[in-house]
Amino acid sequence: MVVQAIGALVEIYYWLIIIYILMSWLPNARESKFGEIIGKIVEPYLAPFRRFIPPIFGMIDISPIIAIIALRYAATGLVAILTNIFT
C-alpha cells in the first residue's frame, strides 16, 4: 500500500515536471495561475539541477531532463527498499 502510494506520487510529480517544461514553450503560460501553482511545486526540485547544469548554447535547458532521470532512479530505489522492508 505504501509502496503503491509512493509510486503514484512520483508519477504525478513526473507529469507535473513535464507539464511545466511544456508550458515554457507557450507564451505567458508560466505566468498564469496554473503555471504559478505548478512552478511553486516543481521549481524547488529543479533549482539545484539548474544551478549545476548550464543551458546548452545559452538557451536549451536540459536540467529538467536530468532531474526527471534522477527522480526515476530515486523512486525506483526507494520502492525497492520499501518492498524489501514490507515483505
TrEMBL record:
- TM regions (residue ranges): 6-26, 65-86
Annotated InterPro entries: CCB3/YggT
Keyword vocabulary terms for this entry: Membrane, Transmembrane, Transmembrane helix
Can the keyword Membrane be found in this entry's annotation? yes
Superkingdom is Bacteria
Record family assignment: Belongs to the YggT family.
Q: Which PANTHER family match?
A: PROTEIN COFACTOR ASSEMBLY OF COMPLEX C SUBUNIT B CCB3, CHLOROPLASTIC-RELATED (PTHR33219:SF14), YLMG HOMOLOG PROTEIN 2, CHLOROPLASTIC (PTHR33219)
What is the protein named?
Answer: YggT family protein
Q: Which organism is it from?
A: Paenibacillus gallinarum
**Lineage, broadest ranks:** Bacteria, Bacillati, Bacillota, Bacilli, Bacillales
